[in-house]
Amino acid sequence: MAENQYPPLTLDLIREAAARIEGRVNRTPVMTSETLDAMAGARLFFKCENLQKVGAFKARGAANAVFALTDEEARQGVATHSSGNHAAALARAAGLRGIPAYIVMPDNAPVAKQDNVRRYGGEIILCEPTLEARESNAARVVADTGATFIHPYDNLMVMAGQGTAAVELLTDCPDLDLILCAVGGGGLLSGTAVAAKSLKRDIEVVAVEPAGADDAFRSVKAGRILPSIKPNTIADGLLTSLSERTFAEIQRHVDDIVTVSDTAIIAAMRRMWEVLKIVVEPSGAVAYSATSGTGLDLKDRRVGIMITGGNLDLDWLPWMSPKAQA
Question: What positions does the domain Tryptophan synthase beta chain-like PALP occupy (predicted)?
């Protein structure tokens, strides 16, 4: 059984992570809006990880994983493969500790994302845009440098770091009835669910996933991991499939999972820009998009919503794309 393969994530590990990363990441604000409350028929509390260091929650897990290493483990640096926010987050965390960061990125990764990694001092190794190429190149880098590999989500210290966002949310808003959290690889969802259920036993945790990348939805229903095959969604931060480690935590602690269309994601993203006055990327709008059209009963409930990030190309906004009209 997946539940028995790995040591479980615990609230103690998440609290240790919070102490470890204090002062190294932002304690992000919780925003509210009477306008959005009225539209949803509920009280909404937005945890703004788009205002986090590197513009995403990934800063938490990367910082915890890097600073949890012993001096001997850290001496040769850290490595990962990522084309997204984890790449920049790991480069930043390594820079804070004064160690090298080797980031394997597909050669079609946006130049802006590559520039972001370099800005934080990461050394980029470009490869073919396939998972096999990413993994083989990362393995070679680790073998050549002795660096410690830190997976974007299949890592207990990364998961614990991500869970600190939910601890902060429930500290600021202890009377929440439900938390909506997007799911890609499952690191944030795992941390959120463990923290929430440990702090408030009767709280509900609902995962939200793009319909075009619905491996978590299918996996939960089937009781086994069914990886994504050619996922297609505007929420590019949620294209990865679950790992056995994150799936085990989701099976244990997540109450439900719903899917949302790209049209709903784009509409939610635009509404957040217009009403909350904040920059949110498509993946960051996924959780909020579930407040309508998914059949969830939110009426008069207090709902926490994880805004996962705010990194996107400002020269290309989705409501200006033909896809927004689909």
Answer: 23-309
